[in-house]
Specification:
The complex is a heterodimer of chains A (480) and B (404).
Chain A lengths: L1 E9 L3 E4 L1 H7 L7 E4 L6 H14 L7 E6 L9 H8 L7 E6 L4 H11 L4 E8 L7 H5 L2 E10 L7 E10 L5 E2 L8 E2 L2 H23 L9 E6 L2 H11 L21 H12 L5 E7 L2 E9 L12 H6 L2 E2 L2 H7 L18 H6 L1 H4 L3 E5 L5 E2 L15 E5 L5 E9 L9 E8 L4 E5 L13 E12 L2 E10 L15
Parallel strand pairs in A: 2-14, 4-5, 4-6, 11-12
Antiparallel strand pairs in A: 1-7, 1-8, 2-3, 6-7, 8-13, 9-10, 12-13, 15-16, 15-17, 18-19, 18-21, 19-20, 21-22
Helix pairs in contact in A: 2-3, 6-7
Chain B lengths: L9 E8 L10 H16 L8 E5 L8 H7 L6 E4 L5 H14 L5 E8 L25 H6 L1 H9 L3 H19 L13 H5 L19 E9 L3 H4 L4 E10 L16 H14 L4 H4 E5 L5 H10 L8 H6 L16 H5 L6 H13 L16 E10 L2 E10 L11
Parallel strand pairs in B: 2-3, 2-4, 7-8
Antiparallel strand pairs in B: 1-5, 1-6, 4-5, 6-9, 8-9
The chains are: A alpha+beta (480), B alpha/beta (404).
Chain lengths: 480, 404
């Protein structure tokens, strides 16, 4: 049996109330809220966040990481390699990018389901559209990760039953390299072309699955950037309205490349053992995938369910959103922008920079962040073992708000964090209101992009407030 | 650890100090020439009679060439030193030790910094290629961590503590207003400072040192030769530098209410100089008030106040110009300005003026019969500090017995 061993979505913390768009410009549409990647998040960091959640809820280790996005942080350089490093995976684990096209997200999943060995499929997207436009009104940011493998690798939560493709060459949604915005033809074209092939692909997948007709589908997720095409496909499929999975448009927004996997995660969180889940993704044709929840799903407890992440979150104003997306340039503090990180220096310290791995002195037990060769306590040399703080909760010991320092989004909120079980690091805080920070605040590390200089993205770890259910661990360790 | 010191072996025989200001019309070379020539004139010494030179600059220039060139120092050893904001004091220390060990009869330490050519606010560290994981906070934000920590540890009301910090800035503005060389010569009340918008934690820009260009220089010789050049020299009683390991950023035991490196440097210097009760024995202290919380905590680290009592002593006026122990009588970094490499020598310049009765009458300290002055100069941030403490006196040897 092959299928999904673990699944996790990642919804960034910030929410834009779409009614602010019309209030700001006097035009534009959109309802509900969308998830907004913070200024320090890109598809790589969001992909890592989802992947980390997926791997933390299973002991199974992947043999490969496949990453799909339409908004890669880098071209030519493999973004999956950064995710791989931040997950602290073994060098023998492969890492590949599936690039550019919206369809690559569902494509990577389908390919993994048909392949061998535990494969971590990660999809993330960060979606923009010109202000007041339809894309802006519907878009959202987010990521999802699915560990796909065989029953011999570990318990399978959802068994892969079958899939089908329909490929259509049509210039209905497109973007040339280097362009910030994507373009689309009149929506009715997509509805006409993609709606029927979505239904065709699902029917072919049903045949592949041996399920017969659509009555065999308990939960159906249909997604694509063309909302008319999605509606047309749903109608052509003729599914029970109650079986349609919430498309999350009004709460998260359409996360494009990530959306099929995100909807699958969301559906699996709702599904009962034995239920079938189908995902149909419309892009340059259609891909359809069908799975069936196993009995193992009943015992699966996601660390941070998509529903819980959707319910959490804090507001971001439309002005700040536009500044974060560089749609308006705001005056920075009058300080020199930081230099690009040194590639050899970063390479030598991959474990620290990407894995947040320090060292623990064997004799004094003191944790050193960053790792050191000589111990601060006792002076023992070269007698340390690696210790990662990536999953360790910490407590704010002191903090400050710096309105003078360079930041892509001033002011900088900064804290001295003491980790449970030992170790201190001065870290920037993120996903936080300066007013909510206090001594004693419980925080968790999060992998972020600090800034970009000379087109090198400087990735490292920050800390963010632990949200409900995350503040595991006692205060005792931090109170010493 | 042995630290024998060089008590009474070396004398300061001449000093010079430029105005500290935004010197848009003066170059680093101009500042160097002005400070050096003022020092030569002060000592009545010719440049050719100085055997060796130490040049302190944090990041305005590299190597001894930057001093030898503008001064046209011919055929002499000229060394550039750097130790963060303690650079000027480090240059002095090297010059004093070189004379004390007998290698040279005379030496000059000159510190200079040109900070206003960079085009940005505040001081900005020279960029060294790194892995990109170092924090990029301003120094103001790093030092702002100390106020909430102090309030928490000693149970002081944060608003009252914030007022005490503003009181320090107000005192230093009061003193700087009476200093013709100072960058800021306007008095500011503590209430005015408290009303300023915060830029880092509780701190406003008026809690921060002035950012200025400037230079200062000291000429030293063997104590036995001092009267060849100077009728009323200052004698070096003790010099100490303690450099931390950065432990405060690693070790959860550090609580941001003290700078242990400063306390260690003070203990070493006091032992060298035979000082046992600095609050009653020192005539004045020039301390590194880069930010108001720094001066507050230093009052305790340097042993002027009991732990947790510094804020109360500040409010009681203990460190005012007419107080029990005047601190930063020239306005300090706050008001005099902080050209990084020059500041340590500027502190000594004030001790030089005050102990020898040359400070302007309106900021002259009361005559208490005390003959010792202290300079404290630091670089870095709470948790990772380079600290210098020096003591200088007018008496070549006196009842205070140097112990080592």
């Amino acid at each position: 049996m092959r299928g999904v061993i673990s699944a996790a979505g990642y919804v960034p913390y910030h929410r834009l109330d779409r009614s602010e768009i019309a209030a700001f410009f006097g035009s534009g549409s959109g309802q509900g809220r969308r998830a907004v990647a913070s200024y320090d998040e890109d598809t790589t960091t969001m992909g890592h966040a989802a992947a980390d959640l997926a791997l933390r809820s299973t002991p199974v280790k992947p043999v490969a990481v496949w990453f799909a996005t339409s908004a890669p942080a880098y071209l030519e350089k493999t973004n999956a390699a950064a995710i791989h490093a931040a997950l602290r995976l073994d060098p023998a684990v492969g890492a590949l990018d599936f690039g550019g096209a919206i369809r690559s997200g569902i494509g990577a999943l389908r390919t993994a389901l048909a392949a061998g060995g535990p494969t971590l499929v990660v999809a993330a997207d960060r979606r923009d559209g010109p202000p007041t436009g339809a894309d802006e009104a519907a878009a959202g940011d987010g990521a999802a990760a699915l560990l796909v493998g065989d029953g011999s690798d570990g318990p399978v939560l959802a068994e892969y039953l079958g899939a089908a493709s329909r490929t259509v060459e049509v210039t209905e949604r497109w973007r040339t390299p280097g362009e910030a915005r994507s373009r689309s033809w009149e929506e009715r074209l997509g509805a006409h072309v993609l709606g029927p092939v979505g239904a065709e692909a699902l029917h072919a997948a049903l045949v592949d699955s041996g399920l017969g007709d659509t009555a065999g589908i308990d939960r159906l997720a249909v997604t694509g950037l063309n909302s008319r095409a999605v509606a047309a496909a749903v109608k052509a499929i003729g599914a029970e309205p109650s079986s349609i999975v919430d498309p999350l448009i009004d709460t998260v927004g359409n996360t494009a490349t990530a959306h099929p996997a995100l909807l699958l995660c969301s559906a699996l969180e709702q599904a009962s053992p034995g239920e079938t889940v189908a995902v149909v993704a419309l892009a340059d044709g259609a891909e359809a995938v069908i799975l069936r929840a196993t009995d193992e799903l009943a015992d699966h407890r996601p660390i941070a369910p998509v529903s819980a992440q959707m319910a959490a979150g804090g507001p971001v104003s439309y002005g700040r959103f536009l500044a974060w997306r560089r749609m308006v340039d705001v005056e920075p503090p009058n300080r020199p922008p930081p230099n690009r990180p040194s590639s050899p220096a970063a390479h030598r310290r991959t474990g620290w920079k990407y894995g947040f791995t320090g060292s623990r002195d064997r004799s004094s037990e003191m944790v050193h962040l960053p790792p050191a060769r000589v111990s601060e306590k006792g002076g023992a040399a070269d007698d340390m073992e690696p210790e990662s703080m990536a999953h360790t909760t910490g407590t704010v010991r002191s903090f400050t708000v710096d309105r003078l320092a360079y930041s892509p989004s001033p002011p900088t909120v900064f804290a001295v964090v003491d980790f449970d079980g030992g170790g201190r690091a001065p870290l920037e805080l993120t996903d936080v209101d300066a007013g909510e920070v206090h001594v004693g605040l419980r925080v968790v590390p999060t992998f972020r992009r600090l800034y970009t200089a000379d087109e090198i993205h400087n990735y490292f770890w920050k800390a963010r407030p632990a949200r409900a259910g995350e503040a595991a661990g006692t205060q005792a360790g931090a109170a010493k | 650890m042995s630290s024998r010191g060089i008590c009474n072996q070396v004398a300061v025989i001449g000093m010079g100090c430029t105005p500290f200001a935004e010197h848009w019309d003066l170059s680093l070379d101009d500042l160097i020439v002005d400070a050096a020539h003022a020092a030569y004139h002060s000592a009545g010494i010719a440049q050719d009679d100085i055997d060796a030179f130490w040049f302190g600059t944090s990041q305005s220039a590299a190597s001894g060439l930057a001093l030898a060139g503008p001064l046209k120092i011919q055929g002499r050893p000229v060394t550039r030193v750097e130790n963060y904001c303690a650079t000027g004091s480090e240059a002095l220390r090297q010059a004093c030790y070189a004379v004390a060990c007998g290698a040279y009869d005379t030496a000059m330490a000159l510190g200079a910094e040109k900070v206003k050519d960079g085009g940005y606010q505040g001081l900005n560290a020279f960029p060294v290629p790194t892995d990109g994981t170092q924090r990029t906070l301003t120094a103001a934000a790093m030092f702002s961590l100390m106020l909430p920590a102090y309030a928490d540890r000693y149970g002081v009301d944060p608003d009252e503590l914030r007022y005490a910090a503003a009181r320090i800035a107000s005192k230093n503005h009061h003193n700087g207003a009476r200093n013709p060389l100072a960058q800021f010569r306007r008095e500011m009340s503590a209430e005015q400072i408290c009303e300023m918008p915060a830029v880092a934690g509780m701190l406003s820009v008026f809690d921060c040192a002035g950012v200025a260009d400037g230079a200062a220089a000291a000429i030293v010789c063997r104590a036995a030769d001092a009267h060849r050049w100077c009728a009323d020299p200052l004698y070096v009683k003790g010099l100490s530098v303690v450099t931390g390991t950065g432990a405060g950023s690693l070790d959860p035991d550090y609580d941001y209410t003290t700078m242990p490196e400063c306390a260690q440097a003070a203990a070493d210097t006091y032992a060298q100089a035979g000082v046992t009760d600095p609050r009653s024995q020192l005539a004045l202290a020039e301390v590194h008030d880069c930010f108001t919380p720094t001066e507050l905590v230093l009052m305790e680290d340097l042993g002027f106040s009991a732990r947790g009592a510094g804020w109360r002593d500040v409010l009681d006026g203990v460190f005012d110009l007419d107080g029990e122990l005047p601190v930063n009588t020239d306005g300090g970094l706050k008001s005099f300005g902080h050209p990084v490499g020059a500041s340590g020598l500027r502190m000594l310049y004030e001790v030089w003026l005050q102990l020898r009765g040359q400070a302007p009458a309106d900021r002259r300290i009361p005559d208490t019969g005390r003959t010792l002055g202290l300079t404290h100069n630091l670089g870095g941030y709470p948790g990772e500090i380079v600290s210098f403490v020096g003591i200088f006196g007018t008496e070549p040897s006196r009842e205070l017995t140097c112990q080592r």
